[in-house]
């Protein structure tokens, strides 16, 4: 009898593993199918341009204060860390170069994307999830309105367009934060800091960070749309969809950060 129970328990473990694996692949498959539908619906962008502008305001303009606030302290932290690590090793002129490279390549795009994922990605999932559980999306279909072109595609375009814009603003403000630390805390002159930025600036650093941000914006929008469109179970389901959207976005941002960095900066 104990042997039989042991076999049954092992079987249930493998069944749970298999079920979880199947659910994982089904979820990724559904996400890629949704991404393909969104790509096909881009031909209707002019028809739904008002929705695109609305989502760009929500994704970009509404997120600007929190992004800039985070960017200032990101640059200040980068300045403190760079000054500490370079102390006694390299001339002070390299401080500006170290801060600019850290901000343009990594800190600016990644931290901006994570902040936006927590704000915008959660908002997209909650909004679409509420529409899903209250059958508003089904109502759109009954009125012959394609929910992909009307709801998902504008958010996708807004993410792809506004994430690089937010990153550019964040980079600029972060460099100002680094300048404040360099001048007020480290004690180097503004001219020396600016010389470090100018002499060691590479276009690849700026372009690479912006390319990253395009992918990050697509990830945030697609994750929010997918989890919102698959919401079930009322208010509890909306809460789970919001959480899953933010977690998925954060994990994929870090994964694609490595992939794109290895591709551009190798």
From TrEMBL:
Question: What residue ranges are annotated as transmembrane?
Answer: 25-46, 58-84, 172-194, 206-226, 246-265
Annotated signal sequence is none
Q: How does it sit in the membrane?
A: Multi-pass membrane protein
Of the GO CC terms on this record, one is: ATP-binding cassette (ABC) transporter complex
Q: Which InterPro entries match?
A: ABC_MlaE_roteobac, Permease_MalE
List the GO molecular function terms.
phospholipid transporter activity
Q: Does the keyword Plastid apply?
A: no
Q: Which UniProt keywords apply?
A: Membrane, Transmembrane, Transmembrane helix, Transport
* Top-level lineage group: Bacteria
Report the locations given in the UniProt record. Answer: Membrane
Pfam families for this protein: MlaE
Q: Spell out the family assignment given in the record's similarity comment.
A: Belongs to the MlaE permease family.
Q: What is this protein called?
A: ABC transporter permease
């Amino acid at each position: 009898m104990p042997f039989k129970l042991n076999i049954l328990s092992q079987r249930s473990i493998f069944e749970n593993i298999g079920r979880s694996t199947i659910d994982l692949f089904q979820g990724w498959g559904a996400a890629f199918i949704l991404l393909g539908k969104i790509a096909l619906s881009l031909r209707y962008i002019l028809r739904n341009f008002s929705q695109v502008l609305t989502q760009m305001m929500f994704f970009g303009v509404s997120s600007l204060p929190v992004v800039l606030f985070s960017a200032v302290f990101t640059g200040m932290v980068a300045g403190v860390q760079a000054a500490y690590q370079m102390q006694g090793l390299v001339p002070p002129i390299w401080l500006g170069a170290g801060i600019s490279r850290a901000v343009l390549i990594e800190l600016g795009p990644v931290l901006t994307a994570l902040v936006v994922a927590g704000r915008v990605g959660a908002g997209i999932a909650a909004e679409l999830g509420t529409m899903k559980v209250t059958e508003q999306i089904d109502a759109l279909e009954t009125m012959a309105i394609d929910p992909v072109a009307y709801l998902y595609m504008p958010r996708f375009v807004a993410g792809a367009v506004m994430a690089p814009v937010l990153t550019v603003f964040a980079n600029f403000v972060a460099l100002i934060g680094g300048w404040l630390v360099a001048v007020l805390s480290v004690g180097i002159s503004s001219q020396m800091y600016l010389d470090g930025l100018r002499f060691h600036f590479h276009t690849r650093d700026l372009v690479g960070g912006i390319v990253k941000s395009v992918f990050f914006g697509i990830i945030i929008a697609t994750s929010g749309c997918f989890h919102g469109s698959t919401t079930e179970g009322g208010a509890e389901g909306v809460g789970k969809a919001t959480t899953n959207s933010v977690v998925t976005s954060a994990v994929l941002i870090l994964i694609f950060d490595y992939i794109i960095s290895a591709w551009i900066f190798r």
